[in-house]
Amino acid sequence: MPRRAAARPETHTALVRQARRIYRTLIAQYPYARAELDFESPLELLVATVISAQTTDVGVNKVTPVLFARYPDAAALAGADPAEMEEILRPTGFYRAKTRAVIKLSHDIVERFDGEVPGRLDDLVTLPGVGRKTANVVLGNAFGVPGITVDTHFGRLARRFGWTTSEDPVKVEAEVGALFPKKDWTMLSHVVIFHGRRICHARRPACGVCPVAQWCPSFGEGEIDADAARKLLKYELAVPKGGEAHVGLLVDGAEPDASFSTGHRGTPTVPRHSGLA
Ligand code: SF4
């Protein structure tokens, strides 16, 4: 572990170099990083993303198989009986509002896009309840179009890394995008969000076990003692089919976790994070 926080790079070139070191290290730490919502089509990912507001992806992944078995396409979702859909979505919270949002969104997809989710940012953001964040999730993961997803984790970490000072997601997206080749944007979003969920928490980042600590200008914002930091790592994911997965922590000299899959519904998903301790 470093003794003090890394200096903020003074030139754009130095910032790019430092940012890419962090990215490479996060890839090695989270080689399995992906969208944590399960889906089998752009529509499923879009709807799952809408449902994921104010709840965990794990919780969403529990209800979407039931939802999409009952309503397999946009027309079926648009014509759903609200009371019936509410019962399915109830465990995710705010289920009445989410039901209204899913039905309205699906209705627009049927009416304006012939039942197919559009594959362009400009079209996606015209759908009700779909902002740039959701659009980029869908483009990056269901259409293979590179996109930076600025959610709460990404924005926080981008500021901690010194990649931006902005709180405006659109500016964060542009400033971070300028540091990385476009082809890396989607994976960058995944690994940064994974890191934010698992180690670089909002309140008490676990700096003492952070694999990118040596390049981080915010090292020391959180717990720097390794033992105390390890106790902060509580993130859990669903246990993949096939059993328990091991998670190694690069910072301790362990192997990175390689027990993963692509994670679409019906396959084993990402590994269980059991505290990394
Ligand atoms: S956990 Fe600490 S050292 Fe690691 S990225 Fe977050 S603030 Fe920086």
From TrEMBL:
SUPFAM superfamilies: DNA-glycosylase (SSF48150). Residues 258-277 are annotated as: Disordered. Gene3D superfamilies: Helix-hairpin-Helix base-excision DNA repair enzymes (C-terminal) (1.10.1670.10), Hypothetical protein, domain 2 (1.10.340.30). Residues 51-198 form the HhH-GPD domain. GO terms for molecular function: 4 iron, 4 sulfur cluster binding; class I DNA-(apurinic or apyrimidinic site) endonuclease activity; DNA binding; DNA N-glycosylase activity; metal ion binding. InterPro entries: DNA_glycosylase, Endonuclease-III-like_CS2, Endonuclease3_FeS-loop_motif, Endouclease-III_FeS-bd_BS, HhH-GPD_domain, HhH_base_excis_C, HhH_motif, Nth. Pfam families: EndIII_4Fe-2S, HHH, HhH-GPD. Coiled coil: none annotated. Keywords: 4Fe-4S, DNA damage, DNA repair, DNA-binding, Endonuclease, Glycosidase, Hydrolase, Iron, Iron-sulfur, Lyase, Metal-binding, Nuclease. [4Fe-4S] cluster binds at residues 200, 207, 210, 216. Its cofactor is [4Fe-4S] cluster. Its EC number is 4.2.99.18. Binds 1 [4Fe-4S] cluster. It catalyses: 2'-deoxyribonucleotide-(2'-deoxyribose 5'-phosphate)-2'-deoxyribonucleotide-DNA = a 3'-end 2'-deoxyribonucleotide-(2,3-dehydro-2,3-deoxyribose 5'-phosphate)-DNA + a 5'-end 5'-phospho-2'-deoxyribonucleoside-DNA + H(+). It comes from the Bacteria. The keyword DNA repair applies. GO terms for biological process: base-excision repair, AP site formation. HAMAP family: Nth. Belongs to the Nth/MutY family. DNA repair enzyme that has both DNA N-glycosylase activity and AP-lyase activity. The DNA N-glycosylase activity releases various damaged pyrimidines from DNA by cleaving the N-glycosidic bond, leaving an AP (apurinic/apyrimidinic) site. The AP-lyase activity cleaves the phosphodiester bond 3' to the AP site by a beta-elimination, leaving a 3'-terminal unsaturated sugar and a product with a terminal 5'-phosphate. NCBIfam families: nth. This is Endonuclease III. It comes from Dermacoccus nishinomiyaensis.
